[in-house]
Design goal:
Layout: E1 3-8, H1 18-21, E2 27-33, E3 36-41, E4 44-50, H2 56-66, E5 70-74, H3 86-106, E6 111-116, H4 122-134, E7 140-144, E8 146-147, E9 150-151, H5 158-166, E10 171-174, H6 189-208, H7 211-214, E11 220-222, H8 229-242, H9 253-257, E12 261-263, H10 269-279, E13 284-285, H11 301-305, H12 311-325, H13 333-338
Parallel strand pairs: 1-5, 5-6, 6-7, 7-10, 10-11, 11-12, 12-13
Antiparallel strand pairs: 2-3, 3-4, 8-9
Helix pairs in contact: 3-4, 4-5, 6-8
GO cellular component, one term: cytosol
GO molecular function: aminocarboxymuconate-semialdehyde decarboxylase activity; hydrolase activity; metal ion binding
InterPro entries: ACMSD, Amidohydro-rel, Metal_Hydrolase
Length: 345
């Protein structure tokens, strides 16, 4: 089975939250034609999208043509809205979570879904994660790399990560609101340089702070091959060696890097091979970033065409690892747990 772990979706009927809550930062879907739209933020064009981003039937046509059995659906990060009031952001998340659950229910053999939660308030985020997993039957949660400038090792997020580990909820960490974005107004460097750097900062914060040691069963997958994080591990380890007074963990960062999963979206077989050597072939999942311009087309192309990968390695990379990460053999656990109050304590 071929599973595309990294795809994004938005409802065609995405509402304008500025009408209800005010403010200029809510994303708005502005239709341009029958087959496309612009995501507008503050009156400016944030991103152009095609109808593939909201039309399940077109997605399935593409999947059939490109050899993908299952897509993992997740929200577009600009909709996280961590800047907003937590309950307003919860409403934004709830709308998307229920839409994704609806698409999955209509095509259960082709899609599974990740929800999103308002990370600016851990209590509200936990409640929405509960709803996503135990009531809607989604299989994980997508979160951003920072929350209003706070790195993910901030103490205010501890309770959220604790519950994600307790409930065995897989987390997909996707870059957004990248560091240094004020220096990247041209050349689309936010996407090519800013996002990989942002992901590295998030990952390094989690390992250096001791979060991954504190929660060893926490399931986290990093987008875009972990950004620049895998290639900075020797430097992070060197820092661990020469600054013993800063150590908060029993082992160097490269040890905890092997607890993460990583999608394969590096566009290069050498990079995938390097990641396999650094963190293990069992920790990489195929992801394409469908349906955006920077996606890998066809999904998993680098894995399929690289002759040095064995058939067993390809099977792990293209589907088996993602199924294990997402507990897909337990896909109906949300229904069971929703009726078991003891399972959520």
């Amino acid at each position: 089975m071929v599973i595309d772990f990294h795809t994004h979706i938005i409802s065609e009927d995405f509402p304008d939250f500025t009408e209800k809550y005010g403010g200029e930062r809510w994303p708005v879907l502005q239709r341009n034609c029958a087959c496309g739209a612009s995501i507008m933020v503050g009156g400016k064009n944030f991103r152009d999208v095609t109808d593939q981003v909201w039309c399940p039937e077109k997605r399935i046509q593409d999947m059939d043509r490109e050899g993908v059995d299952v897509q993992v659906l997740s929200p577009i990060p600009v909709t996280f809205s961590y800047w907003a009031d937590a309950h307003a952001a919860r409403d934004m998340a709830r709308l998307q979570n229920e839409y994704i659950a609806e698409v999955v229910s209509e095509h259960p053999d082709r899609f599974v879904g990740l929800g999103t939660v308002p990370m600016q308030d851990a209590e509200v985020a936990i409640a929405e994660m509960d709803h996503c997993i135990h009531e809607l039957g989604l299989v994980g949660i997508e979160i951003g790399t920072n929350v209003n400038g706070k790195n993910l090792d901030d103490p205010s997020f501890l309770s959220f990560f604790e519950m994600a580990e307790r409930w065995d909820v897989p987390l997909f960490i996707h870059p957004w609101e990248t560091l240094g974005r004020e220096r990247m107004p041209r050349h689309n460097l936010m996407y090519t340089i800013g996002m990989p750097s942002e992901t590295a900062l998030a990952a390094a914060s989690l390992v250096w702070s001791g979060m991954m040691e504190k929660y060893p069963r926490l399931k986290i997958c990093l987008a875009h091959g972990g950004g620049s994080f895998p290639y900075l591990l020797p430097r992070l380890d060197q820092g661990f060696d020469v600054w013993p007074h800063l150590r908060l963990t029993s082992h160097p960062p490269s040890y905890y890097a092997k607890q993460f999963y990583y999608d394969s979206l590096t566009y290069d077989a050498q990079n995938v091979r390097y990641m396999m050597e650094r963190v293990g072939v069992d920790k990489i999942v195929m992801g394409s970033d469908y349906p955006f311009l920077l996606r890998e087309m066809d999904p998993g192309k680098v894995i399929v065409t690289e002759e040095s990968f064995t058939a067993e390695e390809r099977q792990l990379l293209l589907g088996d690892n993602a199924a294990r990460f997402l507990n897909l053999s337990l896909a109906k656990r949300g229904v069971a747990l929703a009726n078991d109050p003891n399972a959520r304590s």
